[in-house]
Amino acid sequence: MKVIICGAGQVGWQIARHLSGERNDVTVVDNNADLVRRATDTLDVQGIAGHASYPDVLDRAGARDADMIIAATHSDEVNMVTCQVAHSVFAVPRKIARLRAQSYLTAIYSDLYRREHMPIDVVISPEREVAKAALRRLAAPVAFDTETFLEGQGQLMGIVLEEDCPVLNTPLRQLTDLFSTLRAIVVGVRREGRLFAPEAGDQLFQGDQVYVFSHKDDTGRTLEIFGKANKRQDRVVILGGGNVGLAVATALESRTERIRAKVIEKNRACAEHAADALERTIVLHGDGMNADLLAEANIDRADAILCVTDDDKTNLLAAVRAKSAGCRMAICLINDPTLVGLMGPLDIDAYINPRQTTVSSILRHIRHGRVRNIYSIGDAEAEVIEAQVLSTSPISGKLVRDTDFPEGVLLGGILKDGKYVKPTGSTRIEEGDVIALFAMAADVPEVERLLQVSIDFF
Hints:
By secondary structure, the chain is an alpha/beta fold. The chain has helices spanning 10-20, 33-42, 55-60, 76-88, 126-139, 172-178, 219-225, 243-253, 268-277, 291-296, 312-324, 354-366, 444-450; strands at residues 2-6, 25-30, 46-49, 68-71, 94-98, 122-124, 145-149, 154-160, 184-191, 194-196, 209-215, 235-239, 260-265, 282-285, 304-307, 330-333, 350-352, 371-377, 382-388, 409-416, 419-421, 434-440.
């Protein structure tokens, strides 16, 4: 597949890294020559320095025979014009654009993206993706990472094992015997900074970060087995009343169970806009770093603080101050991945990386074949892939134990005729099944071969 990626920032670079590693023909375009050089020096890609929306630049990038263009520059308008030029001049079949401004995303204006107007096949909103991730974190507060699969029946959770975890030093195959009715599988383990897919004889140790795939109804029991108590969040303080904070507060208001939320916003105009948009949520105008304002928000009684301003350091420091004042849990929005290592020392419970959520969302739309969902783990180290099994797939009709999965791949869950099944060695994978796989990045091409997903690109 020939792909042009416009924008060589963190999102564009990560997408290029994924696609070039899977033997696609990738060209990166950016008006910053240094970013283009970084991409061509570190990845197996071609690079063009220039404005992505200019027809001559896209022509030099190979748009005449490109299968897809991904517009992920920092400008919404450049991304939109790039897709228009790609369609009108070069007839590129598939166009994906990252758009931030909420006005472009309002449902009543959705006709804007029809082929006869502004032809964009898929619109990705980083703010909406981050808001969804924040709500998932609040739903499973003791998990540092979480995502849903298999029509909402499967749940991926990242859990840090502490010294009071009841199953430390226990081989995974023994866990299966001890909890035979538990629909949960450990699919990934990060130990001393290295992520791997565990084998049945592997044990779990204190400090491990484990990724567990379970049925949604078994998440509470799964967390208990790994030494975690999942408490419902009744009182939430949101630091930041911009697009992300407002989206989260609006979603919390729409829930049937009553959640008391308060929003703190430093910018007066933004605070007034949030107050007008929200019905039951209290909006406080002021600096979230101010101890008196946090006290006014009753931070000592809050179950969680969600720090989603556009400044990483403000998010980190406000979270630390909130926890020291008695808040039970802190979740931070972190753009700079080098700050993630501070989460433990600062006692911050979970973080959201907007680039990671955006990358996962884009990958979901560019995978071959019947891929329904995809979630990028860590620094693009692994993926959880949800896909439908085709009749032409090499794994169709085989038992799990007879399937030649690579060492870095584990099957997390299966949906058979709409019913969730925990896979065992004797489970037969059949045509039409929807499966969720954990795959290390190096094994993703082999997973695509096993799923026979290279038959149809889109």
